[in-house]
Amino acid sequence: MANYTIVIIFSLVGGLFSLLGGLLILQNKSIAERLARYAAPFAAGAMLSAVFLDLLKEGIAEASADQVLLFALAGVILFFFAERYIRWFHHHHHHEGESDPAIPLIIIGDTLHNAIDGVVIAAAFLVDVQVGIVTTLAVAAHEIPQEVGDFGLLLSKGLSRKRVLLVNVFSALATTVMAVLTFAIGSEEQLPIGVLLGLSAGFLLYIATSDIIPDIHANAQHKKLFDVQPVLLLLGAVTVGVVTALLGV
To answer: Confidence class of residue 95 from pLDDT cuts 50, 70 and 90?
Structure first.
């Protein structure tokens, strides 16, 4: 049975571990970009395994299959519209320089993203410690390339390295705050865990299939027969699958 200490530790792993990629871009941009290139396909595979071998299965154990799958679909559609709105806002409110109104949008978007990660992690731990560990692994993996992109974008907008780092540290803490709040509510009032796991599955499925996998295809080395990114996607899927099996999830 999970407790607050476990949830806090793993939510910090899910949130702050993602800053590794961002810290690297402050030190060495080429290394950070290489890390993002390799971490992204691994994360896509990890998320796909987490969705189909973990979250949906555990969600159906908590609620009816119809309900869990309905909310998984709702999760995909919800995040489609959320991303569409963010892109529209960005294109219609774009100015150069540090006063660029896109800066707070980027920060708010990243904070909300991290807060949702916290809900996902806590919902998984409310089911079982092993489910929580697998979910945290998938979240941490997909956050590394996400943070590399956010660090680079904020730096390009004119923010200093120190401010970019501070902003992202506080943003990452939203994962832990929301994880603890979700765990507390779930412990006392029994949240609809099946619904949360369905939404979480939809969220991870959307990120993997709409954001990461298209980038893998777009950046494919067409002149080469062998490309490492599909192998990394498969490795991510296998890694989470093996961890899931070993933990008995």
So the answer is: very low
pLDDT of residue 96: 44
Write out the two tokens for 247: 């933990």
Helix, strand or coil, per DSSP, at residue 164: helix
Query: What 3-state class would DSSP assign to 63?
Result: coil
Summarised one tens digit per residue, pLDDT across range 80-92 is 887 777 666 555 5
**175-190: pLDDT as tens digits:** 899 899 988 887 655 6
Tokens linked to 42: 């691994």
In whole angstroms, give the CA distance from residue 68 to residue 201. 9
23: nearest Cα among 150, 174, 212? 150
Parse the chain into domains and list their residue ranges. 4-247
Q: Is 248 exposed, middle or buried (0-12, 13-18, 19+ CB in 10 A)?
A: exposed
The Cα angle at residue 113 between residues 12 and 199, in degrees rounded to 5: 100
